[in-house]
Write the structure tokens for this entry.
Amino acid sequence: MTAPKPKPTPAIHAAPSRWRHALVLLLVFVLLAALLTSDTLYAQLQRLLSVAEPLIAAHPVWGGVIFVLLSALSAMLAFFTSAVLVPAAVLSWGKAVTVALLWLGWFIGGLCAYGIGRSLGRPLLGARGWEHVSGFYRRRLSAHVDLPVVLLLQLALPSEIPGYLCGLLRVRLRIYATALALAELPYAIGTVWVGESILQRQSGWLVGLGVLAAIASGYALYLLHKALERKRD
């Protein structure tokens, strides 16, 4: 007599807040688009940019270094973002250079998060609000995870989590660095596109980009959990 097989519990249904990140992205874009409709707020933005642009132009090297460092910091801390500097950077350096600097900063920040997670254990993964999320993935991932799964992890989760998580699990640095480089490039391009839309006051483009970002993030999360289900089975 063959024992009945236990019914699998799909990992995707056990996942914490599986669509929260996508919804937050969409709400941020919608809020930005709504703010751009205000003539007063847009005039304030133009005044801030008129102050920031000549400062960056006067100190291009140090401006670039500071922008990269702030971008790296934003990749490590949930409560900090360098995206507010992107419109000024686009005005000063152009889109291509801003994409490169933003990508470099996020890449450095991801590697630093990986190093901290590997050497210190659980620096931020046990923090309130992320403990359930990080615990969910720690129980389902191992050091031998392959590149597609790490890439999906990087695309699906907020940027401050995968580095610490992969470092803690001791995922191979080559695998993590490759996934990090690939995942951050489209986000850098999209962020610069958002910055340009803000400069040109294109609210419709912002909403469209928000929908696209939310769909991409949600679909990456879905694919990640499907991959975890297959590995477990």
Notes: The two ends are 22 Å apart (CA to CA). The longest helix spans residues 203-232.
